[in-house]
Amino acid sequence: MRTLLLACLVVLLVCATTVLADGPADNVAANVRRLPKLGIEVPAEQRAELEAGLAKLQLAIEQLQTKAQKDAQTALLLPDVQIYYKAVHDALAYQEFHAEKELDEAVQQLAAGQTRGEQLLRGEAPWTTQTGLVPRGYVSKIDGSVQPYGMVVPETYTNQTPVGYRCDVWLHGRGETNTELNFIRDRTHNPGTFTPSRALVLHPYGRWNNAFKLAGEVDVFEALADAQAKYAIDDDRIAIRGFSMGGAGVWHLAVHYPDRWFAANPGAGFSETPEFLKLFQQEELKPTWWEERLWGLYDCPHWAINLSGLPTVAYSGEIDRQKQAADVMQRALAVYGRELVHVIGPNTAHAYHPAARREVDERLAVIDKAGKPRVPHSVHFVTRTLRYNQNLWITIDELTAHWNNDATLFAELGSDFEKIDIKTSGVEGFTIHFQPGQWRKNEIGGQHLFIAIDDEFEGLDFFPYPKSDLSVTTSYHFADGKWKSGQRPADGLRKKHGLQGPIDDAFLDSFLMVRPSGQAAHEAVEKWTTSECDRAIEHWRRHFRGEARVKQDAEVTAEDIQNHHLILWGDPQSNAILAKIADKLPLQWTKGQIAVPKYGAFGAETHALIAIYPNPLNPEKYVVLNSGFTFREYDYLNNARQVPKLPDWAIVDTSIPPDSRWPGRIAAGGFFGERWEMRAAKPDAPAPARRPPAAKKSATRKKS
Questions:
Q1: HSE-CB for 299 with a 13 A CA cutoff
Q2: Contact 191, 134 (CB under 8 A)
Q3: Where is 184: in which H helix or E strand?
Q4: What pLDDT shows up at residue 208?
Q5: Where are the domains of the chain?
Q6: Per-residue confidence band for 462, with pLDDT thresholds at 50, 70 and 90
Q7: Lowest CB count within 10 Å: 127, 206, 457, 687, which one?
Q8: Which residue stretches of 463-609 are H helix?
Q9: Is the peptide bond between 502 and the residue preceding it cis, with omega within 30 degrees of 0?
């Protein structure tokens, strides 16, 4: 009997695991369930009704698009209408209705969109002054898609305010059926966990389920920028908050953008990849060496010191497995002598305890009253990539080597505004920037200003006088064994912010998929590139909820090259754009082989090149060869897996079929150097040696 009960318990646990999508059931790469799952079949009569409603709404949208060409206000508000069309259209076109009640919801949303459209055609927009729950929309720079977000507007709101309102950005939890239709429904009926008095709450969609990383990260800032254009928001009183997957998003956005928020409030979620997957997913991890390094992009413990100037209040349920996220960050902060404020809901699983919710809200209200310091006298910043390179009045311009270790910059501003002391490691260039009015030294007189970098002290002409508006901008770079004033002279390609890789970085800005019009040199490569291109386009819509821009190589214009990262598919024989730039890449791809300096040659019959590189036709944009975003179906099942899987370049063996984890067998891969040069890299390669610290020099004030 006891054996039977245990057997039944095991069956129940396995079933529960499958339903909840947690644990070993989602660790089998050969048997990955489809996400988003296919929904119900729509009966013919209801399909016809929805198609008629879509056609009617599309007609109104076309009339508004014509009007928007001459009227800026119509152009700004048109996405508030288009979100309803996209929500219903995509659910119908891609079989994403998951319950019969959603069909009725679609009818209601078409009616809401039609009402808004007709109002806007008359020059009216009553929803712009509506309080309560208000769905809004914007057009994304990434792919031109319309993306929804929700606003919770307090009854006391008025845009006639000289100060602006506090705004809490709330990041939602994971929901595998959280289509645009269901998101808009929720943003119409559910005020959310927190609705502080006299505060706006912004709910980004985040492009579905990606823990607000990659394009989901961009969505947060694009939605916020759109809300700032439509509502009176105080830029110094924006908080980042969320729970579960949203809590993971808060940890990420807090440590990578610490100067954007007056407070951070992560709840549950995850804060790194390897430990969380072992605990929560019971997954045995066997990463490649470059995967392990790329975990550092989002693993927040590496970045914990960046929270030193950002008030942070974490929340967890006492018996929630996802309490692990805050526990990890608590240990990381303790290394720097910081104690994490961690509010814990007693005997609570994966939910907000009512008393804890009140405590968290009260703490943020006190932080709000204290205000955001305008010019903090110290800046601590850690990074592993120039994608994240700014905190307050410091911007890191160059690194010694991406991904090898933490690059750090600690800056201390003297109380008399006469000296800045800076310590760096792994940094080769940086900029100091004080906004107009921020340099508040009382008496400049004839005194020179001083800066000490890594204990090297320079006085005269090393730090500029403030301008008449009390702003300061000055840069420094390391060359010939010492720090020098000014930006490094242009001397060819260098990795820089927004142009530093890895491959996935290209999908954080406007991109264009470029199909080949010719035939590849080898049939296996032709078949592979065609299949992977089709997959990339499909999965961009599936996972990041937008339609990728697509053109044939012959259709690409000079304007396209100027405005977009180009995602080139094929080989130099099949893709005309790739043929133009092939001899300007650090890897040579001919009919016979792909030659990789320091690695060897790979037969072109069964190998293809995946890479990211500054576009030789426009070095301010990327070219990407033969890749969409690099995590695949297996990684959709847990947000902690959704980290770039490939570095700056890789050679794929096309004789091994793609699967749920890889586009084929990866025969070789690595990162380009800081000048986009080919460099050898081994799993056990040590980080480049840091120059020895200079001997301290006495700092004596020089007089003019």
A1: 21
A2: no
A3: helix 180-189
A4: 98
A5: 1-31, 32-126, 130-370, 378-485, 503-670
A6: low
A7: 687
A8: 523-544, 558-563, 576-581
A9: yes
Angle 301-674-548 (CA atoms, 0-180°, nearest 5)?
A: 75
Over residues 113-127, mean pLDDT: 98
Q: What are phi and psi of 532, to 5 degrees?
A: -70, -35
Number of neighbouring beta carbons within 10 Å of residue 299? 25
CATH 3.40.50.1820 fits 130-370, yes or no: yes
CB distance 69 to 127 below 8 Å? no
pTM value is 0.94
The pair of structure tokens assigned to 469 is 């508006």
Q: How confident is the model at residue 446 (pLDDT cuts 50, 70, 90)?
A: very low
Residue 192's CB: how many other CB atoms inside 10 A? 17
Distance in angstroms (rounded) separating the CA atoms of residues 613 and 677: 10
Spatial contact of 218 and 209, defined as CB atoms under 8 Å apart: no
CA-angle at 290, arms to 286 and 295, nearest 5°: 75
Compute the distance between CA of residue 191 and CA of residue 151 in angstroms, rounded to an integer.
9
Token code pair at residue 80: 């508030």
| CA nearest to 91, candidates 70, 105, 71 | 105
Q: Which residue's structure tokens are 């996400």?
A: 35
The C-alpha atoms of residue 236 and residue 375 are separated, in whole angstroms, by: 12
For the chain, give percent helix, strand, coil, nearest 5. 35, 25, 40
Packing angle, helices 245-256 and 215-230, rounded to 10: 80
Peptide bond just before 36 cis, omega within 30 deg:
yes
Query: Residue 132: helix, strand or coil by DSSP?
Result: strand
Locate 222 and state its tokens. 């694009």
407 has which bridge partners?
383
Give the model's confidence band at 119: pLDDT under 50 very low, under 70 low, under 90 confident, else very high.
very high
Q: What is the dihedral of CA 675, 677, 681, 686, to 10 degrees?
A: -30
Single-letter amino acid, residue 440: R
Q: What is the pLDDT of residues 553-592, one digit of tens each?
A: 999 999 999 999 999 999 999 999 999 999 999 999 999 9
- In this predicted structure, which of 138-147, 227-236, 670-679, 682-691 has the lowest mean pLDDT? 682-691
Longest dimension (CA), the chain: 94
Angle between helices 180-189 and 100-121 (to 10 degrees): 70
Record the tokens describing residue 207, joined without a space. 């492009």
Compute the distance between CA of residue 649 and CA of residue 549 in angstroms, rounded to an integer: 23
Per-residue model confidence as pLDDT tens digits over 533-547: 999 999 999 999 999
First-to-last CA distance in the chain? 94
- Residue type (1 letter), 128: T
Contact 57, 196 (CB under 8 A): no
Distance (Å, whole) CA 180 – CA 85: 10
Beta bridge partners of 669: 650
* Residue of 252, 279, 278 whose CA lies nearest to 264: 252
Q: Is residue 662 packed enough to be buried (19+ CB in 10 Å), middle (13-18) or exposed (0-12)?
A: buried
pLDDT digits (tens, 9 = 90+) for 358-371: 999 999 999 999 98
Integer-rounded Cα Rg, in Å, for the chain is 27
Query: How far is 650 from 652, CA to CA, in rounded Å?
Result: 6
Query: What is the amino acid identity at position 123?
Result: G
